[in-house]
User: Fold these one by one.
Assistant:
Number 1:
Amino acid sequence: MRRSYLLTAVLALLALAGLAISGARRDLPWEEREVFAMDTLMRLKVQSDDPKVLDRMEEEIRRLEGLLSAHVPTSEVSILSSTGALKASPETEQVLRLSIQVAQGTHGAFDPTIGALSRLWGIGTEEARVPSREEILRALETVDYRTLRYLGDHRFSLSAGRLDLGGIAKGFAGDRLVELLASMGIRRAVMDLGGNVVVFGPPPKAVWRIGIQHPDRPRGEVLGVLELPERRAAVVTSGVYERYFERDGVRYHHILDPSTGEPARSGLMAVSVACSSSALADGLSTALFVAGPERGMEILSRHRCQAIFVTEDRRVLITPQLAPRFSLRDRSFRVEVLR
């Protein structure tokens, strides 16, 4: 089992959320639960007096993990990787088709066929190591999102490589949970799916307040706060501090560049993406981290999402629509609005 990393990437700091929620209707209590699934700790918080709501949410998360995890031998993703063919369930079809679309739209900066590289590095496991260049080159031969094809009628083929949907599956789970809560008539929810923050329902005090994790301070300390007025929103972060190991003074983080086979070196510490779709924000956060700000802005121009890039030289580069919604807490960084 992979090592647990609490609240990776963006934190919807439930302490922060709790402050914001203090103005909410008090006729329904807030129920909370922590769930370890999809290799991360998830925190669920819903406004409901039905104790079965959290049970249903946990059941859905575990069901999706059983379909989408590359670490579950019987999952549909594992079956497609091992056999090269799959007639998918509706959920797996949705996430695989979205994975193909995101890979195409990011020119492979997000690549769902990166499984061989992920296994080779083993980052987040007890077997984490620095592979030889020869090993990396061999694994790179199997990485090409174009080998994953949708054939119609729920069928997919994979002509080479192994799938790893770690860069999009939690986001997809967030979207599914929102649909589940809406079908159950739930008024409000705040979900932190291992750094994939999803808010649902009318925001208390006019906005949802989401803390952006500080990239080089202890967990729970925020770089800034993002205020979102939307009734449904997701903020997903990819960062160097999530999963990593160190060898000889060098940090090797888990965000692998599909073009080099090594941890991405784009001059970034973290990228946060805000979007109505948690799955799309998840895939794009990985892609933008790999691509860097310049290429990332070109990618963003094709999607209705916004982003915050945190650079190694302590700049916070933010897209125009998010700029008035973001409050910087650490003044050793400086904010620049991207154009």
Note: Residues 14-51+190-337 form a domain with the T-fold fold (CATH 3.10.520.10).
Number 2:
Amino acid sequence: MKKTLILLAVLTLTVSGCIRLNGPKSPSAAGVFKSFDKGNTWAEKNLFLHSGGSGSIAGVNVLNLNFDPQDRRAIYLASDGAGLLYSYDGADSWRKADQVGNGRIESVAIDSKNKCVIYTTFANTILKSVDCNRSWSEVYIDTRADKTITALAVDNFNNLIVYAGNSVGDILKSVDGGGNWQVIGRLNDRVTKILISPQDTRIIYVATRSKGIFKTTNAGNQWNNLNDGLKQFSASLEYRNLIFDATKPNSLLYAAKYGLLKSDDGGQSWTAINLITPPASVDILALAISPKNNLEIYYATTSTFYKTIDGGKNWITKRLPSGAVAAYLVVDPLEDNVIYFGLANPTRK
């Protein structure tokens, strides 16, 4: 039975140093930066609004950033320790989803047909809001308190279908908006990301921490691993990120310990994207691709931002906008000159 969570203490003062309320800007500011010129320059976007006034999220360690599918100016920030934050003005200001509480938020998923329906992970639970962050209820709890929910995704065709993954590799599915759940796969490794094909939502990709990528073409009835095409690349099963190339169907960009790999056939085969650094020599901590031009790729390491406009033949390198570490990159789905960059201070994971 769903139970409504008790409102936690006032959001402004409960973040225990994760949200800095005042003081000078830090050269190691984390939080969010925004570029309006495809990564050439960056502006810090860390204004935090609360009932007592304003502050800063420059002390927040970002894990990922998620657009509302219906409103690209609505962005949800999953943090490592500061709970769930959100912006309704393209990161000009941030607020806290106070009923979610403080803690690590692994994943957020927004209903593509109803922007007020939001799902988030919280430890071993899944929480749901149906009123745009005003209140939250618990729709799933794993009785194994040490097993965390690590990934979420909502079907964009049937928005009552929700998928979740956990830290031991179980894949869960609900067909009634989180009321009931069933296990549809056991991958025996931490689920790090769930991607649902926008062209055919029966096609789903699940990335794991160190056992590669799995795929279903029938909404989870059967899973196949895509590792045969990856094994030629050393350390390619060690996940860093997986994203769609929005310019063409069945196209994926995969960051692994090896480096960057591209597939144009739904993961059956992969080709390496040429990087400046040798294979398996640096960790790619953030990855993005233009939704309009797939030759424009961005990634970042602990200290450096990389950009190519020709698919990897040549790279532009820049220092990160602060002394913090790269955590997440995402390009605005309509204005591809706009990039959001989440940063964190070690240790990120």
Note: The chain has a mean pLDDT of 93.
